[in-house]
Amino acid sequence: GSKSLRNFCITWIMVCTALCIILLCQLLLRSQDQSAVIKRSNNSLDMVEMSGFICGYISCVFYLGSRFPQLYKNVSRRKSTEGTSYLLFALAMMGNCTYGLSLVLKMPASESFRALYFLHHLPWLVGSFGVLFLDVFVS
C-alpha cells in the first residue's frame, strides 16, 4: 500500500512538473512570436489556452481523485469516520461551495455567451462541486 502510494506521488509530481515546463515553454514561445501572430477567430483556441484547459481537466481528475482514498479508508477498511478532521472537511466544503458559486454567479447575462463561459469553466465547476459532493460522503 505505502509503496504504491509513494510511486503514485512521485508520478504525480513528475507529471505536474512536466506540465508546468510545457506551459512555461508555450508562454515563452508565445511572447517571442507576438510579431508573427496571425489573427485568430474568437472561437478558436491557441496553444496556451489549450494547455490551460488540459491543466484544468487534469486538475479536476486529481482533485476528485483526492477524496477516494479517504472514502475507501472510511468505508472499506475502518468502517467509521474516526480520526477524520471534520474542520478540514467543513472548511474545504465551504471553500468549494463558494468557489463554485463564484463561477456560477459570474456567468454572463447574455445567453449567447453563457454556453461558451460554461464550457470554458467546466473543469473547475466539476472539480469544486464534484469534490463538494464527495465531501458529503466523507463527512
Automatic annotation (TrEMBL):
One annotated Gene Ontology cellular component of this protein: lysosomal membrane
Membrane spanning residue stretches: 7-29, 49-65, 86-105, 117-138
Recorded name of the encoding gene: Pqlc2_1
InterPro entries with a match to the protein in the record: LAAT-1, PQ-loop_rpt
Protein name from the UniProt record: LAAT1 protein
Record's keyword terms, sorted: Membrane, Transmembrane, Transmembrane helix
Similarity annotation: Belongs to the laat-1 family.
Membrane topology, from the record: Multi-pass membrane protein
Subcellular location: Membrane
GO molecular function: L-lysine transmembrane transporter activity
Keyword flag Cell membrane: no
